[in-house]
Amino acid sequence: MLSRSEVEHVAALARLELSEEEKELFAQQLREIIEYVNILQELPTDDVPPLVHVVPLKNVWREDEVEEHLEVEEVLSRAPDREERFFRVSRVV
Amino acid sequence: MKYEAVIGLEIHVELKTESKIFCSCRAAFGAEPNTHVCPVCLGLPGTLPVLNRRAVEYAIMAALALNCEITPYCKFDRKNYFYPDLPKNYQISQFDLPLAQNGYLEIDTPSGPKRVGIVRLHLEEDAGKLVHVQSGSSSYALVDYNRAGVPLIEIVSAPDLRSPEEARAYAEKLRQIMLYLGVSDCKMEEGSLRVDANISVRPAGSDVLGVKTEIKNVNSFRSLSRALAYEIERHVACLERGEKIVQETRGWDEERGVTFSMRSKEEAHDYRYFPEPDLPPLVIDAEWVESLRKALPELPDAKRRRFIEEYGLPENAATVLTATPEVADYFEETLKFYPQPRQVANWVMVELARCLNAAGISITASPVKPQALAQLLKLMDAGIISGKIAKDIFEEMFATGKDAESIVKEKGLTQITDEETIRQVVREVIAANPKVVADYKGGKEKALSFLVGQVMKATRGRANPGLVNQLLKEELSRE
């Protein structure tokens, strides 16, 4: 059962601010989703290897070569705030 | 009560690839902020990471050199946390299927060699760099994403280390191996080698682990052992007072020589790992591993053993000469032109090392190349110059880049081996120092070396010392 405090924990990890009503609502909705997914647990999977990827691909890679970079002005044009060539963000420590 | 420390290290090594791990941006250190970035490493929507093959190759090489088992089927996972050094709000790392596991590294301790376990080695992307700014009443941070996406390997040791010295030896040995492999430049000051330490103490002989703290921000091997020594003392004092150790992350204050609590929110360690859906699994076949294993260069321990056996070097000389592959190569290159291992070893470890230190340059940048050093030593062997003069010439070679022969010619430094010339000087010295001569005759053997010194001085060090000795004795007995 998903408790209200777990919702608060997950919200805090995702940096989401939830109202009391939202906490109730999301707890209820998440419970329903988890219960639904839990139906899958009923299947016997002892002989099934864990699936790590749904696409049947492996080892897609590139050679170690340098290509074009973005222009710094273009990079920073999307920044909410900047200072010289840096992104500027609020205090973090 | 007697306590023992239990230490494990987590070491991050940046791989020396040309491009980043998941995009084609340049991975080099030191560029202007935010100039080595693209939509992938900025985490812009709609982009996809594509793995750099060489990063995997370097990681496998590192794992093999650390005696690890390579995971044949591994994958990448997202490590989720909110911090502005990651533009995507997650770091692509490896969680339950790391690239390699179960290795070890051997270190030298005062009580003999010791095997330190390596729990795992995994591949991940580096994060960007934050600059914290305090200006007046406002404080904020500046972010540079050049480093975001530089390939990293994280190497986690078992808690097998028992002292700050062992921890330092382990970290230094690991760095040495990475330098030999050429997979990283391992510059702590540039952050391409970063060491975090987990430390706890317990009553000696106990097999229960105490509460641990994690030390971050050590920027040299010396700081690592100082920080650990401080932290061990702090833990012991705490326990002696009957207090509990708080499990936390602590920073190292180099100037004050103390560790300090870096309060981090409890929730920060809930990373909610899940498989990275944008990257297919990584399958490493045995053939690939074997071809990389065969191509591994000679590693430090093997090279040191060979230097002892093949060249008859004493153990400490072999250790010094194999400290880096560049020093070892210089030594062996010199031997090709002048096959006298002990003689070459001394010159590399004493004269060359001194000049390199004074100039603050690495051996690869030495103005005196191996062949030039060999030529100098040959001149000395042939008796054309004396050992003392050879040292002066070496300094001159180092300062000017000229070769030994031209310096000898220019300065007229050839050794005087002509008996009559030396005998003349010997007579003059005897005549000028009647008191010392009397002392010598009175049985004071040491007086002779003063006289030898005077002759050498008068000939500006050019007289053959053996001849000087012989002729002085002859002349003195004649009087």
Describe the structure.
- The complex is a heterodimer of chains A (93) and B (479).
- With 93 residues, chain A is of the alpha+beta class.
- Chain A has a domain of 44 residues: Glu-tRNAGln amidotransferase C subunit, N-terminal domain (Histone, subunit A, Orthogonal Bundle), CATH 1.10.20.
- Chain A contains 3 helices and 3 strands, in the order H-H-E-H-E-E.
- Chain A has a two-stranded antiparallel ribbon.
- In chain A, helix 1 crosses helix 2.
- Chain A is flat and about 55 Å long.
- The relative contact order of chain A is 0.07.
- The radius of gyration of chain B is 30 Å and the shape is elongated.
- Chain B folds into 3 domains: 286 residues, no CATH class; 114 residues, no CATH class; 60 residues, Arc Repressor Mutant, subunit A, CATH 1.10.10.410.
- Chain B is 40% helix and 21% strand.
- In chain B, helix 2 runs antiparallel to helix 3 and helix 14 packs across helix 15.
- In chain B, helix 3 links the parallel strand 13 and strand 14.
- Chain B is of the alpha+beta class and 479 residues long.
- The interface between A and B is large, with 37 and 48 residues.
- Strand 3 of chain A pairs antiparallel with strand 10 of chain B.
What key attributes describe this structure?
heterodimer, A: 93 residues, alpha+beta, Histone, subunit A, flat, B: 479 residues, Arc Repressor Mutant, subunit A, 9-stranded mixed sheet, 3-stranded antiparallel sheet, ATP-binding (chain A), protein biosynthesis (chain A), transferase activity (chain A), GatC (chain A), Aspartyl/glutamyl-tRNA(Asn/Gln) amidotransferase subunit C (chain A)
